[in-house]
Amino acid sequence: MFRRNSSFKPRRGIVFAVRRSAVLWWVLTAVMAVLTASLVGSAVGRATRGAAAWGSDRLVWVVQQPVAAGDVLTNASVRRTRLPRGVVPAGALDGARSPVGDATRVTVAIGEVVLAARLARHGARGVAAMVPAGYRALALPNDEHTPELAPGDRVDVIATFDVGDDLAVAAAPEPSITVAAGAEVLAVAARTVTVAVPEDDAPRVALALAKGAVTLALRGGFADGPMTVDPPSVN
Q1: DSSP string over 38-62
Q2: CA 218, CA 153: separation in Å to the nearest integer?
């Protein structure tokens, strides 16, 4: 014999009771409303706290096309946009000041925020735009003794003097001395290498060019001193 499933009776009883009792109906409605408001308020609170963590928006300039060092920024190179302050790097150029027409001292990539310190002084172009404040650019010989170099490399400028030259001996008691350490390579041509040296070192480099032989020693990319290689293990 077919029997009704008794599990449906209590449910129909609850629904019938709720429908018959207006008070119970409104109590349940109020409870659901409170729970919904609580969930919504919690979500809004989390969103508000997240927005506060990022900070308010700031108007900045963002690179739209790759720009090489020394090149001038154009309207197509950058665009002004708003970003949360939490993601804006320190030193970002203010959005009210347009960088269009200025050259960049370094190569910049798409998506980078334009930094004020990376812009050359107004009117500077090419290699002149790449020379940091307090430095001077000098062209040194590029010959078969010069290591393979690229812009951005660091070199030591070593001068070798003729020990029979009284002026050279007075300027340098040793035949070979470093006249500029850690000079930045700005440009490489077939016959010259242009480097930036501190302005105080520029006269010594000029003397080396006039009275001696100049050698460029390429520095490695290790910040903590020379690279050390462990000796091979012996089995």
Answers
A1: HHHHHHHHHHHHHHHHH-SEEEEEE
A2: 7
With residues binned 3-state (H G I as helix, E B as strand, rest as coil), the percentages for the chain, rounded to 5, are 30, 30, 40
Beta strands in the chain (DSSP E): 57-63, 78-84, 135-141, 154-161, 176-188, 192-198, 212-218
What phi and psi values does residue 51 have, to the nearest 5 degrees?
-65, -40
Dig out the tokens for 137 from the structure.
Answer: 């650019």
Residue 118 is classified by DSSP as G
- The 10s digit of each residue's pLDDT in 166-196 is 555 555 556 889 999 999 999 999 999 999 9
> What does the alpha-carbon distance between residue 135 and residue 182 come to, in Å, rounded to a whole number?
12
Does residue 162 sit in helix, strand or coil? coil
pLDDT digits (tens, 9 = 90+) for 105-129: 888 999 999 999 888 877 788 888 8
Residue 175 pairs in a beta bridge with none
- Nearest CA to 136 among 209, 214, 208, 198? 198
- In the three-class reduction of DSSP (H, G, I as helix; E, B as strand; rest coil), residue 26 is classed as helix
CA-CA distance, 53 to 51, in Å (whole number)?
5
